[in-house]
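Hi all, posting the design record for the shared folder.

TITLE: backbone redesign
STEP: 1 of 1
STRUCTURE INPUT:
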């Protein structure tokens, strides 16, 4: 750009403002649709529970209940210390270091993996620094 005029700046500002407004509108629509989908998912899940179904194929889709356990990331310094000490002792330095800045999704992925590992040995997983797991049920919907 060799020469930029004030008119060019004004046009760029107007274009940006218009795109921001378009983005805000799309974001509101997206959030609204997300909440509608959540409500429909709760409704379908309730229907499946009422009919004692774990899976159903209909209308060209396979819908199944997905059961996962979930834990919260350690909050207090004592919980964090206990959790990281448990990781170091039970999983080694590489895993310990990988979870030093753990996010909820990574933590739950590790937790679910370890739950299966412990269950295959007939053991119950208890990790220092983590609270009791919370059972969550959601739906998986795929084309049949």
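Okay, here is what came back for every position:
SEQUENCE:
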């Amino acid at each position: 750009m060799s020469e930029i005029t004030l008119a060019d700046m004004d046009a760029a500002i107007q274009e940006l403002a218009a795109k921001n407004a378009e983005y805000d509108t799309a974001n509101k629509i997206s959030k609204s649709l997300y909440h509608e989908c959540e409500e429909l998912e709760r409704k379908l899940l309730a229907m499946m529970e009422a009919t004692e179904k774990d899976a159903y194929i209909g209308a060209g889709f396979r819908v199944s209940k997905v059961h996962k356990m979930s834990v919260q990331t350690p909050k207090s310094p004592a919980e964090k210390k206990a959790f990281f000490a448990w990781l170091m002792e039970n999983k080694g330095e590489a895993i310990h270091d990988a979870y030093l800045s753990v996010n909820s999704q990574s933590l739950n992925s590790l937790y679910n993996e370890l739950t299966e590992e412990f269950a295959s040995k007939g053991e119950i997983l208890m990790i220092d620094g983590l609270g009791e797991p919370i059972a969550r049920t959601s739906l998986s919907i795929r084309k049949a």
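COMMENT: Helices lie at 6-50, 77-91, 93-98, 104-120.
Let me know if anyone wants the other runs.
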